[in-house]
Amino acid sequence: MAAFSFNHIALSVKDVNTSIAFYQKVLQLDEIKNTASDSKTRWLSLNEGKQLHLIPRPDSEIKTNKAVHFALTTSDMNSFVKYLKELNIDYSDWRDTPNKDYIRKDGIRQVYFQDPDGYWIEINDDI
Questions:
Q1: Cβ–Cβ < 8 Å for 111, 84
Q2: Cα–Cα–Cα angle for 38, 8, 82, rounded to 5 degrees
Q3: pTM, whole model, 2 decimals?
Q4: Which one of 44, 60, 71, 74 is most buried, by most CB atoms within 10 A?
């Protein structure tokens, strides 16, 4: 059997410019060239060769729930949570307690927040 590694995540978004601005501001992701096509899909770097692809679908209904999310890790949770507060971005723990972080049984701290289309993003300190 072939071995696999993570390459990218693709999200359908209502307004690709709004989503690009959000991810650049909140997660400080750099935009990279879409090498796959000349479409309006835009790509962001998640570092280490991993990517976030934002696919414009202005007429699509986007349904999400917290169980469907992607997670990024940081070594400085305190600064990131402070930054979310400065941006007035609501976050919660896994149980939906507003503006509260969650510490998992294994000691990993995490918070969840949503992008402009309602996709859930987890930030944790699982370094």
A1: yes
A2: 110
A3: 0.93
A4: 44
Taking residue 54's Cβ as centre, other Cβ atoms within 10 Å add up to 27
What token pair was written down for 122? Answer: 């987890």
DSSP 98: B
Q: Which residues contact 93 (CB under 8 A, 6 or more apart)?
A: 100, 101, 102, 110, 111, 112
Which CATH number is 8-56's, of 1.10.530.10, 3.10.180.10, 1.10.3720.10, 3.40.1190.20? 3.10.180.10
Which tokens go with 112?
Answer: 């969840």
Question: If residue 10 lies in a helix (H) or strand (E), which one and from where to where?
Answer: strand 8-13
Rounded Cα–Cα distance for residues 2 and 73 (Å): 27
Residue found by looking up tokens 């701290």 in the block: 109
CA distance 13 to 51: 16
Residue written as tokens 């998640």? 46
